Recover the amino acids of this structure.
């Protein structure tokens, strides 16, 4: 679309629908390719106002948007009607502090507008109407009362004219096509003179001027405002996007077995337009295949939320499809025809309840697709908000889109969810109080966590302790090395590993040598060199996880079902990794092993074969190898009262290493 400068000036300078001052602050919600951004960008820049552009993913995150609007002191906001409806339903206080709210892009919901106006009577709410071809807004209406019918789209904005014309381009007193002209008119479509000539016509009443045929129907009301009355064609607005239903019908008709297809748009009651497709064809027609074919060629907002397979389409007396007699789609229309699998466990059950409420369905299976069950981008953001509220976690839009089934989402959340607790969320956690000194990197024991190192960090003097979680990815060794290289360090590289964390530290030390960053010292707390693969007793990992989370010092942290599942998965993955890993090769690092009380320095299998031992580390270093008599049982070495003695040993080893290096 070729939009001249004068059209932008007409939109935001000395206009009649809004006053923008240098005191105003605008938060941009329109994508840069969406015409609302013209109003937002130039409205702010040409009037000296402040403009903020949030990350695009924030628009569908109500909690984040509410924070940004308050933090930025936003006074003017533009929202599509669908997004406005969602905000009003989720948390109406998101509009607190605004001076002017503009809504448009599709038909407004009276219920939601009235709800916001009652809550904030001083807020100026504007219905903004207009095609891109006339630069964002053609008419605007200040909503100052409740309406029983459709909310008018208002009066022409400054330096704009609107005509209601019939097919002969003559004015009509009733319903006709809305045609727009004036300074906001675009020059035409880039490199498409044929379409430009079709949509931009000579002005019937002013020589040398043009009008744009919007394709929208409207009529003037007795109070002089304009009322929207539909379309002259099958184009509809879905979540702010222009959609030609005929284009969707063409793609559906191209699917194997389909004989006829009709696509309609309707509002199921939540103020959001949805698409429904009606199909006839042979027995080979399946909604799964139709949806698969559509997703290959159409964007998400053009995929029908519902697909209804009929024996035949209802017809009028003259043989045309009678759209008024098409059945209302139900929540089962368009559901995958694969068997519905039951939900398993508390996480899936909770997610299932959230999905039922979000999608307004009675039943949902573990592998049913959110989108096939009637979901779309706005509903997925509503679902995310509910999940965040219930579990107290952070969930990204990307996670939800990548995992459109309950089973997949439950697994993804246990891997990726953030709980707002650094010791749980982050792979690498700085634990020491603020201060300088060489960095020490600590690798996790079998529980896979950083919490075992919290007390050590507060007793270790002159060093900055950075503790790792267990990384479940198969690229973990390389990932650990990447994290280490991301930390600004001074002095030698120093590692600590508790229990199997010592074995993990050894393997990362090998990787650092491959990167020409040799490790000077590895302190192993009761770690044995693994010589062969092992098989742990069935259920041991699960029991370790339960014992860990139910420990009196940690129990209060693990009341969240999702967090408990994440910990169980992490420990199980760590046990599997350790059972399959054998240490071999040589490192340059000095190895120091601090033994527990009554330490078992040799581990034998049931046939008496050596599985792991302490002395075996001597074969794996070209540096020195030293053992020390530590204090406390294996699981208690970094807790009081054993901690004091073991900290002294660790402090001494690290201090000597630092002095030796230089």
């Amino acid at each position: 679309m070729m939009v001249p400068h004068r059209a932008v000036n007409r939109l935001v300078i000395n206009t009649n629908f809004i006053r923008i001052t240098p005191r105003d602050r605008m938060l941009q919600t329109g994508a840069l390719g969406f015409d609302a951004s013209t109003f937002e960008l130039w409205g702010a820049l040409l009037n000296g106002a402040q403009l903020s552009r949030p990350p695009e993913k924030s628009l569908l995150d109500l909690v984040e948007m509410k924070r940004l609007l308050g933090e930025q002191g936003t006074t003017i906001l533009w929202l599509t009607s669908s997004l406005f409806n969602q905000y009003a339903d989720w948390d109406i206080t998101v509009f607190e502090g605004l001076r002017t709210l503009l809504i448009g892009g599709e038909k407004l919901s009276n219920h939601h507008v009235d709800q916001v106006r009652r809550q904030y009577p001083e807020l100026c709410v504007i219905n903004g109407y207009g095609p891109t071809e006339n630069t964002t807004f053609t008419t605007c209406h200040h909503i100052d009362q409740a309406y029983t019918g459709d909310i008018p789209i208002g009066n022409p904005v400054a330096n704009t004219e609107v005509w209601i014309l019939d097919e002969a381009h003559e004015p009509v007193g009733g319903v006709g096509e809305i045609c727009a002209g004036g300074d906001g008119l675009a020059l035409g479509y880039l490199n498409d003179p044929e379409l430009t000539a079709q949509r931009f016509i000579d002005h019937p009443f002013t020589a040398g001027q043009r009008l744009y045929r919007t394709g929208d129907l409207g009529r003037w009301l007795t109070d002089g405002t304009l009322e929207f009355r539909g379309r002259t064609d099958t184009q509809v607005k879905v979540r702010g996007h222009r959609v030609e239903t005929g284009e969707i019908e063409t793609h559906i008709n191209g699917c194997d077995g389909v004989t006829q297809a009709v696509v309609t748009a309707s509002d199921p009651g939540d103020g959001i337009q949805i698409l429904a497709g009606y199909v006839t064809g042979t027995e080979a027609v399946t909604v799964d295949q139709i949806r698969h074919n559509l997703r290959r060629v159409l964007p998400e907002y053009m995929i029908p939320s519902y697909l209804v397979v009929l024996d035949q389409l209802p017809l009028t007396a003259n043989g045309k499809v009678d759209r008024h007699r098409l059945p209302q789609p139900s929540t089962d229309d368009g559901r995958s025809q694969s068997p519905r699998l039951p939900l398993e466990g508390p996480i899936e059950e909770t997610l299932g309840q959230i999905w039922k409420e979000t999608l307004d369905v009675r039943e949902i299976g573990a592998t049913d697709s959110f989108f096939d069950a009637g979901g779309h981008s706005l509903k997925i953001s509503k679902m995310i908000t509910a999940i965040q509220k219930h579990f107290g976690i952070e969930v990204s839009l990307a996670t939800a889109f990548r995992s459109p089934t309950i089973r997949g989402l439950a697994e993804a959340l246990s891997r990726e969810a953030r709980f707002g607790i650094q010791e749980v969320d982050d792979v690498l956690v700085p634990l020491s109080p603020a201060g300088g000194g060489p960095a020490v990197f600590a690798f996790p024991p079998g529980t896979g966590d950083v919490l075992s190192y919290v007390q050590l960090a507060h007793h270790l003097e002159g060093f900055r302790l950075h503790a790792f979680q267990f990384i479940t990815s198969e690229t973990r060794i390389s990932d650990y090395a990447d994290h280490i290289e991301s930390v600004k360090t001074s002095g030698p590289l120093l590692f600590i590993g508790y229990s199997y964390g010592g074995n993990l530290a050894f393997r990362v030390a090998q990787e650092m040598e491959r990167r020409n960053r040799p490790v000077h010292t590895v302190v192993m707390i009761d770690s044995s060199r693994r010589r062969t693969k092992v098989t742990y007793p069935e259920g041991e990992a699960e029991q370790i996880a339960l014992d860990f989370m139910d420990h009196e010092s940690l129990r209060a942290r693990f009341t969240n079902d999702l967090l408990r599942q994440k910990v169980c998965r992490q420990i199980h993955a760590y046990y599997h990794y350790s059972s399959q890993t054998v240490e071999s090769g040589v490192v340059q690092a000095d190895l120091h092993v601090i033994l527990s009380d009554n330490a078992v320095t040799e581990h034998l299998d049931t046939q008496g074969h050596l599985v792991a031992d302490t002395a075996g580390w001597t074969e794996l270093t070209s540096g020195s190898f030293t053992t020390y008599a530590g204090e406390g049982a294996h699981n208690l070495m970094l807790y009081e009262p054993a901690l004091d003695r073991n900290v002294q040993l660790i402090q001494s080893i690290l201090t000597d290493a630092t002095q030796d290096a230089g």
Observations:
- The chain has 19 helices and 27 strands.
- The first helix runs from residue 5 to 12.
